[in-house]
Amino acid sequence: MCKRLLGPSDDVWQIHYDALARTARGEDIVLMSVGDPDFDTPEEIIETLVSRIRQGRTHYSPAEGELELRQAIADLETNGTGRTFTPDNFVVLPGATAAIYASLACICNPGDEVVIPEPMYIGYRPMLSALGLTARTVALDLNDDCALDVEALLAQINARTRAVLINTPGNPFGNILPRETLAQLAEALLERGVWLICDEVYSLFTFDEPHVSLLKAATELDNVVVVDGLSKSHAMTGWRVGWVASPASLTRAITAYSGSAFFGCSQFIQDAAAFALVHNGPHVEEMRQAYQRRRDYVLQRLDNIPQLSYVRPKAGMFVMMDVSRMSNSGLVFAQDLLAAQGVSVIPGEGFGEVARDFVRLSLTHKTNMLAQAMDRIERFVAG
Ligand SMILES: Cc1ncc(COP(=O)(O)O)c(C=O)c1O
């Protein structure tokens, strides 16, 4: 596993690390390369955590997670989908990353294949490497609303395919997979005995159309796994709270996996997470509106820069900027932009070759900082 994990260093992340090093040296860098919300976790959630620690909620927790939190998730999913979920359908893990990793670990054996639409979230490949899995990719149509061609995806399936991993709303493009696509895919994969894992961590930050959960769209849930968490929706990246929704048989396996790898998550964090899910709707809505305003601001600035264009994100906290009129590589553009103007962005290549014409801007900044970043980008393209 060490050999698989410690591959050659990644140019794409190097830009971010260089930007961090320059910031640490006191240079004036605008860090647009990371998806960590600039909002602080809402105060009531923090107060709940502190009071639960004082109440002695500092002991081991069951491997599947605290009942109060799993009940809160079950209630939300029941209300959101019209289906009945119980706490037994959910396992709590330390973040969506652990939840996806645990799902893949329980579904697949080393040497198996996983089909993933590309561009894909930058975090998936390291998980596959760690687990000894191979990715087969299928390109989203960037000229058609990031449409997923289900037939093209199914053509990638072979005897070694154990799972398909999708992400909606998507990172980096903020695209939303339509309900029909999700339903069609789930059904076709059920017929083929393949699991469908759907990462929905941006589900609460949609702007132009509602997110439809795979838990609602799929006709049968026998092969369906949905991952979600609080990192983005509640500005809680450092708290490490995520979960898996899956059929009871897989939930039992993931619980056993979690018991062996983590021996449970913190009680007080889960208590505060349950509070967040039950009581913190207004804060989530405020943050959603802020991201929407920031997206609209950045797009309006880009509308006035003829050398640049974009694919309009419908959700999430990123804008993919098309730099193909300036450079034939997002990586080269990003390196030059950082060197010349001190703005760090993630090159599209990090999400797959299909996105090499793009760089990703993060909207995790107040508008005055976004204004500064856009001024610098404007100066850079003007030469
Ligand atoms: C699509 C996607 N999935 C998962 C994660 C990781 O979430 P967590 O912090 O809950 O592990 C991220 C973080 O950027 C993401 O963008």
Secondary structure blueprint with pairings:
Blueprint: H1 2-5, H2 11-24, E1 30-31, H3 43-54, H4 67-81, E2 90-93, H5 96-107, E3 113-118, H6 124-131, E4 134-139, H7 150-154, E5 161-167, H8 179-191, E6 195-199, H9 214-217, E7 224-229, E8 242-245, H10 248-261, H11 267-279, H12 281-303, E9 309-311, E10 318-322, H13 330-341, E11 343-344, E12 346-347, E13 358-362, H14 367-382
Parallel strand pairs: 1-11, 3-4, 3-5, 5-6, 6-7
Antiparallel strand pairs: 2-8, 7-8, 9-10, 10-13, 12-13
Helix pairs in contact: 2-13, 3-11, 4-11, 5-10, 12-14
Bound molecules: pyridoxal-5'-phosphate (PLP).
Pyridoxal-5'-phosphate binds at residues 35, 95-97, 121, 123, 167, 171, 199, 201, 229, 231, 237, 242.
Helical amount: 40-55%
Name the helix and strand elements from N-terminus to C-terminus, one letter apiece.
HHEHHEHEHEHEHEHEEHHHEEHEEEH
- Please name the CATH architecture of the largest domain: 3-Layer(aba) Sandwich
Per CATH, the class of the largest domain reads: Alpha Beta
Return the CATH topology of the largest domain. Answer: Aspartate Aminotransferase, domain 2
What is the approximate shape? globular
Which stretches are low in confidence, meaning pLDDT under 50 for 5 or more residues running?
A: none
Could you tell me which ligands this complex binds, including any ions or cofactors?
pyridoxal-5'-phosphate
Number of domains: 2
Distinct helical segment count: 14
Q: Structural class, judged by helices and strands?
A: alpha/beta
Keywords: Aminotransferase, Pyridoxal phosphate, Transferase
Pfam family, one: Aminotran_1_2
Cofactor: pyridoxal 5'-phosphate
Family: Belongs to the class-I pyridoxal-phosphate-dependent aminotransferase family.
